Amino acid sequence: MVMIKKWNILFIIGLAFLFLFPQLPIANNYLLHVGIIIFLNIIFGLSWNLLGGYTGQISFGHAMFLGMGAYTTMILVSK
Fold it and tell me: What percent of the chain has pLDDT over 90?
């Protein structure tokens, strides 16, 4: 018999909330924007923890890709 651990259930609930958050009927666009920025920072922090914390490697690729994505987005939005 397979036992489902508490962390697996919390992970599934968090993942479902992550995918359903943009679909929620939020009347204020500012709250939606803040929520998406929070999720992006969580993902960025977890990836940095995985690379820098567990393996001990130093990588500036995370910051570079985040900066390139932000720069590209601003160019596309402004035009």
Answer: 10
The answer to whether residues 51 and 44 touch, using CB atoms and an 8 Å cutoff, is: no
Q: Which of 1, 38, 4 is nearest to 18 (CA)?
A: 38
Through-space distance between the first and last CA atoms of the chain, rounded to whole angstroms: 57
The overall pTM is greater than 0.70:
no
Helices and strands in the chain, H and E counts: 3, 0
Asked if 59 contacts 51 with a C-beta cutoff of 8 angstroms, the reply is yes
For residue 74, give the DSSP letter. H
Tokens of 49: 């923890």
DSSP state of 57: -
3-state secondary structure of 8: helix
